PQQ-binding-like beta-propeller repeat protein
Amino acid sequence: MPPLRGTGSHPEAEHPEYAGQYRLEACLGAGGMGVVHLARSPSGLQLAVKVVHRQHAADPEFRARFRQEVAAARRVSGAFTAPVVDADPAAALPWMATLYVPGPTLSAQVKRNGPMSPAELRRLTAGLAEALRDIHRAGVIHRDLKPSNVLLPDSGPKVIDFGISRPYDSDLRTETGKLIGSPPYMAPEQFQRPREVGPAADVFALGAVLVHAATGRGPFDSDSPYLVAYQVVHDEADLAGVPADLAPLVGRCLAKDPAERPTPDEIMAALHPPSYEAAAFIPVQRKPLAAETVEADEGTTHVRAADGLPSGPGAATAKGRRTRLRLACVAVAALLLAGGLWASGAWGGSGAPEAGVKKGPAAAFVPWRTPLRAPGSSTPSCASGASGTGVPALYCSAAGFGSARLNPSDGRVVWSDRETPQGGSGGSGPRGAVSGSVAYTVVAGEELRAYSPGEGTELWRTDLSAYLDTPLPAGDTLLAVRRNGTLQGLDAATGASRWRRALPGHESPGFALYEARTGLAYVFEGSAQGGSTLVTAVEAKTGGTAWQRSLDGMLTPAGTSGGALLLTSMNEKAQTTGLVRYDPAPRSTTRIALPFRMNAPETVVDGDTVLLLERGGTLLALDVRPGAGRAERWRLETAVGMTSAPVLGEGGRLYFSAADGRLLAVDTEHGTLLGQTRPRLREGKLTHASSLPAPVVLGRSVVGTAPDGSVFAVDADDPAHW
């Protein structure tokens, strides 16, 4: 490992060439605790590396605080913070490397552009509440939330700088006589009872941050920190200028009594439905240039590159069973998608070649885009299957139009059914999938219609009111659960019942996934107390039982590997905490703990590797071989605010979509981002969606769908030029 060497003109020679293995490229800024440098990982990932000041490195108490900062940042590393990549608190000059987050701080944004609009403020409120929820769930109290510790990249707000945060169970206490924090954003108890500070203090700070975002000033304003402290403890907050619809909620956040403040979950509930209508208030990402140092507070590093980009170190009920079932179905089939995502309007005719896309030197591939034009439409849903002649085909569904078959080579519409009833704007549009040689559409969750793939002739339709969930495609069989708890297999070609049976031990089961290699589908049902899960392997064609086993924990089947069933395991807060590998032959069970808790990740099994993609963009690869030792192979922070289910392709590539219409490709061997398409928003706005359609892989084509109502194809062999 290269040594730290002082080569610059900074005090104490604090411009080293390396921090650990990372070569430091530029100084981004300095604060009371240290200097932050721009660096790159060996894979080329841009990092912000914080190196502490030499005088602090000799202070045992400071080292303890820095170790706690690293631990806290690692505990909360995820979608709402700057994820920790590496750190060495024991180095001669302790350092921590986090993902470089491009985007201004909230304080810089307000200073440059003035107070936020009501829509922008509402979006910020929701994003910061969600961030605090995850920080608190990780057992951490930030204690220094303020505008300079909030970054605004295009993926949503990020909370940074955990320099004075502490875990709930921390033994490290505030020094007597020292004020730790930033007075305008500190809660009354931080002045009065600093050893009793809890998560509600962060909610108070959130209220003060929102006042600043709405007005350009704080709720308690004075040039003297002592007068501000008095106002925080004794005076009412000044909410003049805060939008009327948000003022009561902000006022509750600023209550003097911590017990009267809302929790982050209550804040998000008060904002429901969320506002995604605000135009993005984030400037276009630019390459960092030479850096300038800006003012930084004690305990906080607030830096900005010369072009304005900052960097900051950071950071079972039946209903529950149904939620897990829907997630598992999307992850495995990548076909059955929730409502609210379907475009409405007329097809654009033949697909048009995509402009401005570079092609490889030997490429015969021509990217295309087929728009589905109509007011109010949203993201289409697509699935792949046979065309009836053995040629691969693409089937898409869209609210207001219905179902159609597209030619995957050029996006041309081969046939369409324009009789499908139009879904509402809230998202009751049709959902499409393929089973065997039949394409079908679920209309508004009430009716299933099946079509011949060649001509698009309607073959049959059936009422779904008798079933609990959308049928699961299983080869040429559709698997469904009736409302009385019995299972049924339908012939995909005719809609006729192939078999119907009650499953011993199950009262209200759900299908989770189908494995084509064995012809088995997996049924699961959690116990009433959530302590165990009954799992049954069912033969899709006949309904026969291959095996049944009760396993400890709240589990959901996620995939298979080497004949073993892999299941995700959740805690009482519905967070995924581990994987369970069950091998039915020896009846052996292996449990693999996740390195951190994940919120509703979508899972894909790739041989002996399980890939877990969290809604907020965190991607984790785990080795699930028995006795493999360290389970984590790699992790990647994609900085995507909301993702679809991931889909595996050839050449060790993983694909998934983002809420802004981007399609992303990741190398599953090394955990690196290979490329991504440009955003495709409708009129520059995000639309509300409870989930996103997954992309479709068809040979060399990767087909994505976007909020602008388009279906598009890019070259799977050349993601770097998407």
